[in-house]
Amino acid sequence: MKILGIGKNYVINLDDIKANKENPKLIFSKPESSLSVNRDIDYPSITNQLVYEVELVIKIGKEGKNIPVAEANSYISEIAVGIDYTAKDVLNEARSHKHAWDLAKGFDGAAPISTFKSINDFTDLSNINFSLKINNQQVQAGNTGHMIHNFAEIINYVSAYMTLQPGDLIFTGTPPEGIGENKKGDHLQCFVEEELWLDFKIN
């Protein structure tokens, strides 16, 4: 199973989507051991800057290579919501030496996600609302209509480089406002269309 992520994929103003379409796409990966499904996580000992980003996560349902945009959404079987965690201090150190991001993005617990729901539960993939509350205060909110590269375009792009297989997961980007750091004891709740999907604490 592959776990991939796309960075810098949301805009605040819809007018900015067109201007950013041709920018290089930022793709990274996380190991399977970073997953945490609907359970509390421990604050990682390798960082003092645990940065959260709420994202929708798509699951691939069938194998595909060089998937056309027009067909790409048919390769999605389910959707979840999750947090893409970054050890920001580890990332800054890696960047200073022009090293890869793996350790900053791939530590244990770096990918908490909800259980998945069928793609058939969604009537419009370009209009899905999702949000994050920390300690009962909303800190991030987004809508898939503000994506620079939508689900189909992400699948099309990634599948040009690697075969996508059933069970592969793709974190599809985070709203640019409200990203911040978590502390021990924080309580996170992720919502999709105002329904609570993911609920966990940081020990």
How would you describe the overall organization of this protein?
The structure is a single chain. By secondary structure, the chain is of the alpha+beta class. It has one domain: Fumarylacetoacetase-like, C-terminal domain (Fumarylacetoacetate hydrolase, domain 2, Alpha-Beta Complex). 16% of the residues lie in helices and 34% in strands. A hairpin with a 2-residue loop joins strand 10 and strand 11. The two termini are 27 Å apart.
Quick synopsis:
By secondary structure, this protein is an alpha+beta fold. Helix content is about 15%, strand content about 35%. The chain has a single domain, classed as Fumarylacetoacetate hydrolase, domain 2 (Alpha-Beta Complex).
Can you tag this structure with a few keywords?
34% strand, alpha+beta, 15 strands, globular, 203 residues, four-stranded antiparallel beta sheet, 5 helices, six-stranded mixed beta sheet, Fumarylacetoacetate hydrolase, domain 2
Secondary structure topology:
Elements: E1 3-7, H1 16-20, E2 26-30, E3 35-37, E4 50-52, E5 54-60, H2 69-72, E6 76-83, E7 86-87, H3 88-96, H4 102-105, E8 111-113, E9 117-118, E10 129-134, E11 137-143, H5 151-161, E12 169-171, E13 180-182, E14 187-192, E15 195-201
Parallel strand pairs: 1-12, 3-8
Antiparallel strand pairs: 1-2, 4-7, 4-13, 5-6, 5-12, 6-9, 10-11, 10-14, 14-15
